[in-house]
Design a protein that fits this description.
alpha/beta, 13% strand
Length: 287
């Protein structure tokens, strides 16, 4: 059997819920994507990747997505990718002149400056927030890789036992991967500073090179300027693949703020409902 890869893209709190619901619905229909030989997680997808490669079953992970923010102890102030953040992203894209690493450097500098002014949670506060989802989890013998971008160089860094930086803890790797620029603080690790892996690509699907087939769950699979979509990356690799993005019902459930915990339960249910539309295609591809 060929080696299979599951790619989990970024998409905020609602993206975690939607991906978990989709995985649960597919497994219920007999297509268990968590059996992948490699799991690639970017931003929200890094949290889902850490969860599905742990000993916790999909049914329990899905059940947790249906709980209210209060039941999960989620007391952090509501975050959002607001207009000021959007302007910074667009300006950085224009100034990057088509160079994805230049884009990462420009946005990285802004992220560091915004955090230094106290406009984001502190690093300890952010670790506490992420621990509500992956607390206690560690790397195991699964091939899980987690992406982040070096804020100084703009280069992609791949964490994990099979990645570029094997010695970094799973907790550090996931916090770095989920560091949305100018919303959450950049994460210092080993003398370097990291921001969200989604700065380079919404899913970084090209890390599935050497694997076939590849399935991508990507709440925000977009090609903007130098940012490549998962479909573009996998087409260039020439591997069999399916990229799944939210359907109309899932988009309505996700709503306008992907960082809103209140939208988590409807996003999970929508993902689970959407799974039915992909069962036949994935059964033929995945086996």
């Amino acid at each position: 059997m060929s080696k299979r890869a599951l790619v989990l893209g970024g998409g905020g709190i609602t993206g975690i819920a939607w991906e978990t619901g989709l995985l649960a619905g597919l497994a219920e229909a007999g297509v268990d994507l968590t059996t992948a030989d490699r799991v690639i997680g970017t931003s929200a997808g890094s949290i889902v990747g850490a969860q599905i490669t742990s000993d916790t079953g999909l049914d329990e992970l899905y059940r947790r997505q249906l709980l209210s923010p209060a039941a999960l102890g989620d007391t952090a102030p509501l975050a959002a990718i607001g207009p000021s953040v959007a302007v910074r992203l667009v300006t950085s894209l224009v100034r990057s002149r088509g160079d994805i690493e230049r884009f990462g450097r420009i946005l990285g500098r802004q992220a560091v400056a915004v955090a230094a002014k106290g406009r984001t949670p502190t690093v300890p506060e952010r670790y506490q927030q992420v621990a509500q989802r992956i607390g206690g989890l560690e790397w195991n013998d699964r091939d899980l890789v987690v992406t982040a971008v070096d804020a100084s160089t703009g280069e992609l860094t791949v964490f994990g036992p099979q990645g570029d930086v094997a010695e970094v803890s799973l907790e550090d790797a996931v916090n770095a991967s989920c560091s949305v620029p100018c919303v959450y603080p950049p994460i210092p690790i080993g003398g370097r500073t990291f921001i969200d892996g989604g700065v380079r690509s919404g899913a970084n699907a090209d890390l599935a090179s050497g694997f076939d087939p590849v399935v991508v769950l990507s709440p925000l699979d977009r090609a903007i300027g130098p940012i490549r979509s998962a479909a573009q990356q996998l087409t260039e690799l020439g591997v069999r693949h399916v990229v799944i993005t939210p359907d109309a019902g899932s988009k309505r459930a996700i709503g306008g703020n992907v960082l809103d915990p209140a939208a988590r339960p409807p996003s999970a249910r929508a993902g689970r409902a959407q799974a039915a539309a992909h069962v036949d295609e994935l059964r033929a591809l995945w086996g």
